[in-house]
Amino acid sequence: MSEKNSELSIPSGSAIARPDRIQNPGFEPEHTRVTDESEKRMRGAERGISLLFMLSGFMTAAATALYFIFPIVPGDLSSTRNNNMFVGLAIAAGLLFLGIGAVHWAKALMHGHELVEERHPTRGDDATRARAVEIFQEANKESGWTRRKLLRNSLIGALVAIPIPAVAMFRDLAPGNTPEEVLKHTIWAKGVRLTRDPNGVPIKASEVTIGSAFHVIPENLLEVEEGFLNEKAKAAVLLMRLPQESLNEADDRTSWSYDGIVAYSKICTHVGCPVALYEQQTHHLLCPCHQSQFDVANHCAVIFGPAARALPQLPITIDDEGYLVAQSDFLEPVGPSYWERVR
């Protein structure tokens, strides 16, 4: 662009050419609220806001009660709908009253002076820091947090009540028995065949080649009608075959494998993720969730990661037809190790 055109495009007297001439518009006049003009209305607003906080706490407590009044009955979809609807509405109402109360408090009772405060990139001097403390004290005074005890205490009560439904619902997810009792026994039993997951086809020892890995479920799992997924989650097994000389078996476990074929629980002993990644060359199992690694050649001992103990081993053998079968159930609880255990 030529110098002449440049000069024509920006008039010399414009605001763009002389930004120093832009006037500071300042703030609009502050609007006076009814609560600023009347002590009676201020007290009324305070009582109304406290009532909202109290209603929030009441609805939160009601959500907990409704969770038990309308229990979820397995197989009954209407009970699930009723539970979700009533509990959800109560929780939503509790949060709604809490939010409305907080907004009303800010708009009706807290001072809303507009201001501009410069930010300093370095530590302020002592006078500035002392003034900052005064500002916080003034904000506390203006908000009424210390002085308005009814508002403060009702808000605290509403906030304390918020987690109660979650505590009740999450606690109800825990099984009736201790985790150790639930996980100590699976549907594996003596003579139960190892079958492919998910089709349930029995596996012969001759089909398991060195370096291969099979995802396995017990044959009797297909007979389970109630709690199928829970039983499958506990009984899932990974089957592998290693060269016999690569296995370092303890004396009391030499009979738990068959001709280099070993079977271990797929449930990681860290937090229960499925261990399903097998490295053929290193004989390592990897949990994809948190990278715990287990050495299959050494009874799936932990060699890396946060898992606290080895994967439980399923003792196996073959039947008269050459199919792989379990010798018994797992001899220790499967799953995560953060629960207290006998062993």
Secondary structure topology:
Elements: H1 3-9, H2 34-37, H3 39-69, H4 77-108, H5 126-143, H6 149-161, H7 164-173, H8 179-184, E1 194-196, E2 213-218, H9 228-235, E3 237-241, E4 261-265, E5 277-279, E6 284-286, E7 293-295, E8 301-304, E9 316-318, E10 324-326
Antiparallel strand pairs: 1-2, 2-3, 3-4, 5-6, 6-7, 7-8, 9-10
Can you walk me through this structure?
- With about 350 residues, the protein is α+β, with helices and mostly antiparallel strands.
- The protein has two domains: about 35-115 and about 125-175; about 180-325, Rieske [2Fe-2S] iron-sulphur domain (Rieske Iron-sulfur Protein), CATH 2.102.10.10.
- The chain is built from nine helices and ten strands.
- Strands 1-2-3-4 form a four-stranded antiparallel sheet. The protein has a four-stranded antiparallel sheet with strand order 5-6-7-8, with no helix packed on it.
- The radius of gyration is 34 Å and the shape is elongated.
- The chain starts with a helix and ends in a 17-residue tail after the last strand.
Key features of this structure:
Rieske Iron-sulfur Protein, alpha+beta, 343 residues, 9 helices, single chain
